[in-house]
Amino acid sequence: MSDLTHLDASGAANMVDVSEKDATHRTGIAEGLVVMQPETLAIIRQGDAKKGDVLGTARLAGIMAAKRTHELIPLCHPLLLTKVRVDCEIDESLPGVRITAEVRVSGQTGVEMEALTAASVACLTIYDMVKAVDRAMRIEGVRLLKKSGGRSGTYEAAP
Length: 159
Known about the structure:
By secondary structure, the chain is of the alpha+beta class. The protein has one domain (24-152): 2-Layer Sandwich (Alpha-Beta Plaits), CATH 3.30.70. It is 29% helix and 29% strand. It has helices spanning 38-46, 54-67, 69-72, 112-130, and strands at 24-35, 83-91, 96-107, 138-148, 155-156. Strands 2-3-1-4-5 form a five-stranded antiparallel sheet. Strand 4 (138-148) and strand 5 form a beta hairpin. Helix 2 packs antiparallel against helix 4. The longest helix is centred in the last third of the chain and has 19 residues, at 112-130. It starts with 23 loop residues before the first strand and ends with a strand. The model has no long low-confidence stretch (mean pLDDT 91). Pathway: Cofactor biosynthesis; molybdopterin biosynthesis. InterPro entries: MoaC (IPR023045), MoaC_bact/euk (IPR047594), MoaC_sf (IPR036522), MoCo_biosynth_MoaA/MoaC (IPR050105), Mopterin_CF_biosynth-C_dom (IPR002820). Homohexamer; trimer of dimers. This is Cyclic pyranopterin monophosphate synthase. Belongs to the MoaC family.
């Protein structure tokens, strides 16, 4: 059985022991999309949502979520993040909002889950803030775009 598994000798889930791994600079970048009606996107673009600044709130929610990933996802290690950036860009071609989350750490384990959590929560926040006008919105395409650092090297998603 590999040393890097979430299963112990009896097959029960447990947190991976990363104490033997070297601390390295690690980056994870993830994205998610919120697809909506053009009218809903116009409300967000114009800043007319009844709940306030949709994109600003989504950015903050994503950052906060990245910092709490270990509380949300079982078996994730608590990490001292060195950078979290969440960008929310209006994308007329969807129509909707494209979320990109970048998370960095210098440590013994990666930040893919933190980046994915940040993107997911930012998408959910957008949905929550304008769901009263568009319940048909879709959250889709949440995926890891890039991962670097650590034993497994670099990963880049196909475009």
